[in-house]
Amino acid sequence: MRTFKHYFFPIIMSLILAGCHFGPKKSDNATVVKQLKDLLAKDEYFKLDALFKLIGDQMDEGNRLYFKAYISNAFNRNEACVKAVDSVFSSSLKLTDSDKVALRQLQGDSYFKLFEYEGAAQCDSDILKHYTHAISKETIVDVKNDLLIRAALSKTPKQESVIKNNTTIAWTKDALGLIEIPVTTNAHLFKAIFDTRANISSITQTYAKKLGLRMLSVSYNETGGATGIQFKTGMGIADSLYIGNILLKNVVFQVMPDPMLYIAPVKFQLNIIIGFPVIEQLHEVHIFNNGKMTIPLVTTKSDLHNFVLNGLDPVIALKSGNDTLAFNFDSGASSSNFYASYFKKYKATILKNGIKKTVGFGGAGGSQKKEVYVLPKTDLTIGNATVAVDSISVMMEKITPDEKFYGNIGQDFTKNFSEMIYNFKDMYIKGIK
Fold first, then answer.
1. Sign of the Cα pseudo-torsion (103, 108, 112, 114, in order)
2. Of the N and C termini of the chain, which has fewer Cβ atoms inside 10 Å?
3. Are 194 and 274 within 8 A, CB to CB?
4. CATH topology agreement for domains 160-295 and 307-432
5. In whole angstroms, what is the distance from residue 189 CA to residue 211 CA?
């Protein structure tokens, strides 16, 4: 991914070719808003942010706050998002009921990332109280499901991390090739999967008892990422646990029946998964391919802003050929795969060079077989570093109806670097060869 220093030039050129002026008058506001809304509708957060930086100050205040809310949420500036949404509702901007629902969902997401569960639950309640006429039955089900989780957590203290110095731990790989890190609680040491794509940390019922989790009275629907399979799960709280010498308090786990984390094709039981909400609170993580992981006390700034969040899903911008594309980033996946949008964009090349196969995909909730095209070799670029990834499967159909990104990037990409840096303050991912 190019840094914004290099990213501005093609953006500016495209605006010139489109006849767009850099300093639009107030009368041009509708045109500017449409351009930004088109990017937002496609979850093109990187392009949205770049264009907003160029023309945001020229917009009316209501619309400026509207887009600031979405951009702040994507780049993990959640306090700014919460305030911006409140300001939009207080402004003179005319909002449809659909706009209001989307903004409340956005604000609820930021409250959840701030571990302010009561605020998140209030957003869901507001939607169900005032706007059910404006949303689909499927969305109502999703909002009710979120409310179950957030209401159950509403009296839980905020999760927090205590980092007093630089921390180094050793990581290993399990039988599936997934990264495992040591986690300590109640003087017992456990191994846990390190998974950036897990929206919430997960644990089997058996291990929830071993860790002494405080169980909550809630049951809700969850969906397995690669499979799309839905299943019921519960929730528990670890009052404290350690990663190295870093103390984490009030850690939320979804507690799942053991079979839901059993990978049948390889007869392997997953037990504990450390997900995004914990990983993000480490602020910056360095993973070395020699089996070492470091968490620095002080994070390192960078202008490589190639990392955003779509809800709780990490998204990375990588260059593929001449295109810069957004992919889900999944440290808990041993291999990468491309989605239906990638197949649609590069269909002719894939049909020419790909090999049609039936491939099994496993994850939380079970496994499935899908017909895909396998690309023998694909070059992907992060920053200034390009690596070739072998045998990436390309889906021909969407896993979920609202799928928008181009694929899921796993360890077959990251293993090509001697060091990977995940930074959640300046929002960048960097690979060092």
1. positive
2. C
3. yes
4. yes
5. 10
CATH T-level fold of 4-153: 1.25.40
d(CA 315, CA 409) in angstroms, rounded, equals 9
Closest by Cα among 422, 264, 410 to 332: 410
This prediction has a pTM of 0.86
pLDDT tens per residue across span 67-82 = 999 999 999 999 999 9
Cβ–Cβ under 8 Å, residues 202 and 364:
yes
- Looking at every residue in the chain, the average pLDDT score rounds to 89
- pLDDT tens by residue, 328-368: 998 878 889 999 999 999 999 999 999 998 876 655 555 56
**How do strand 167-170 and strand 292-295 relate by DSSP bridges?**
antiparallel
For residue 201 the two structure tokens come to 């940390």
pLDDT higher than threshold 50 for residue 21: no
CA distance 1 to 427: 13
Fold of the domain built from segment(s) 307-432: Cathepsin D, subunit A; domain 1 (2.40.70)
Q: What are phi and psi of 90, to 5 degrees?
A: -90, -10
User: Which tokens in the block code for residue 8?
Assistant: 């501005």
Contacts of 401 (CB under 8 A, 6+ apart): none
Q: Are 276 and 312 in contact (CB under 8 A)?
A: yes
pLDDT at position 227: 52
Cβ within 8 Å of residue 46, ≥6 positions away: 1, 7, 305, 306, 308, 317, 324, 326
Percent helix, strand and coil across the chain, each rounded to 5? 35, 35, 30
Please give the class, per CATH, of domain 160-295.
mainly beta
Pick the closest to residue 191 from 173, 212, 176 (CA basis). Answer: 173
Question: Do 175 and 266 meet the contact criterion of CB atoms below 8 Å apart?
Answer: yes
- Say how far apart CA 84 and CA 35 lie, in whole Å: 20
Q: What residue ranges do the domains of the chain occupy? A: 4-153, 160-295, 307-432
Tokens, residue 16: 């010139």
pLDDT at 224: 60
